Sequence to fold (183 residues):
Amino acid sequence: MNKLSLSTKIFIGLALGVMAGLMFQSSPEVATIYIKPLGNLFLNLIKMIIVPLVLSSLVVGSASTGDVGKLGRIGIKTLAYYLVTTAIAVVLGLFLANMVNPGLGLSIPVDATAEAKEVPSVIETFLNIIPTNPIQAMVDANMLQIIFFALILGIGITLVGEKAKPFLTFFDSIAEVCYKMWQ
Fold:
């Protein structure tokens, strides 16, 4: 018997979700009472696994290169890839927003107010990537700080060498457990 691929399972789930949405469109209280708790449960499971998964995977990945120089080259390529894909996403988003005109016909009450937050400077943004407390960053699920911390741990493991092998094995074990939990 052939197993279904992950993408096939995703599209089946998407189709079933659309059909359920159409079926319960006339009675939203059914969706709120019975379906929403399942959605919240699913999201909580994802939130539960994401921090240990990202941390352990990145520590193992960055330490497994075995060469700090090689890791730097990979980091530069990753940063370039991130910037290019972000630029593409921004351009695509602006293009689609101009084509679709979201909010067209939406009436906003006259007495509505909104408070804008002050945008942090570029320097502040870069400084906020470095966690003052990595445990707090994990509690808050601050992914940029977790990624930075994981990369620094991986570099440290690489620099220490053989003595850090048990530490690397610990993170490798966490990563494997997280992979199994999500299968």
